[in-house]
Amino acid sequence: MDKEIIASASALFLQYGYKAVTMDDIAEHMRISKKTIYLCFNDKTALVRYSVLHVFETVKDKIINVETTTKNPIDALYEIKKIAVQVLGNKDKSPQYQLQKYYPAIYTEVREKELSAFGDTFKMNLTKGIESGLFRNDIDPDFIMRIYFNGFRGLRDIELFPPAKYDIDLLIGKYIDYHLRAIATTKGIKYLEEYQQKTTP
Description:
10 helices
């Protein structure tokens, strides 16, 4: 039952926000009593934490799958962008911003997991880019990986980029473009611009 509760709560939190969804909402959605939820979780904070970790593991699996199955590293970054936007892109409810504001300890815990979870996978992306001639061969993959993660964290900072003013989809797109143009070869820039022309509405 606890796994079912986590799955249902995760979906509601992403749709409506971590602050907005109550334990009553989750119980009503699942057609169970609130008491049943409290038998599995001491309080809402505990359920939020398990739900956030559940989403994190789901996203991690999707990203690792993209990186290991997509040959072109530029294509892979844009596929990962789609995954990120699914989690971060609810502008009206801003679940990730609510998490940062109302559950900062959980937000920090997940941020600390990101580098160890995705660092090697992202360095694989950079290595593919170097080997294919799309990225410069003089870049330091470990340094670039850490700079990229640091910048991506900044995109989610509610003081730097208030959700009411900035669209996360556009922000991530601009950041990927900025990142790729800093490390790409002439061949890579050409591919990037052709990709953007094909995918821009």
